[in-house]
Amino acid sequence: MRQSAVLIDLDGVLRRWDADDVALERDCGLPPGAIREVAFAPDLIRPALTGAVADGVWRDRIADRLRSRHPGADVERAVSLWSSGCGEVDERVLALLRRVRPECKVVLVTNATTRLRSDLERLGLPDELDHVVNSAEVGTAKPDPAIFEAALRAAGTAAAEALFVDDLPVHVRAAERLGCRGHVFRGADGLADRLVEVGLLPTDAVSS
What we know:
Layout (H helix, E strand, L loop, with lengths): L4 E4 L6 E2 L4 H7 L6 H6 L2 H8 L5 H15 L5 H10 L3 E2 L1 H10 L4 E6 L5 H8 L7 E4 H4 L6 H11 L6 E5 L2 H9 L3 E4 L3 H10 L11
Parallel strand pairs: 1-4, 1-6, 4-5, 6-7
Antiparallel strand pairs: 2-3
Helix pairs in contact: 3-4, 4-5, 6-11
């Protein structure tokens, strides 16, 4: 069955993060990995990803916890610098989406905070996507089936007609349990091969 929608993750797929957090932390008097350890602790990140707290509140809580753990560090500067970037688009992945979009809907399905819309503007992505399904707006995060169901509703398609692309196998398996086809992203070449397999690109696409 040819796919009528591509449901695609943002971070680790369409967006890359190449910032040197370790250098930032060193310059601000923090040990390596300190920011991510705190920022992605379940009790902090979960409310941010489900919209229970706004992005700014989440970042304030990161600063508060870092300050309590590392009182000698320049925490305000560290969190400000860490928050200033928005990553960069993987242009090869974007080129593939542009090729398939005339034939199908492209729906971003991502676990993100309330800052997502402004990040997408900075990245120049709004016009490249048909719909955006953000966990902070839906109120639930991948791998909860509800977020995939919201994406399918946005695309106006059945699960069997959707290809879900994510870099985390647990998310792909969750989409597949709903009936979607899945692809664990490991690079643009593999994604191109998968798009050929499902009939969204011609067989010569990988070498073209």
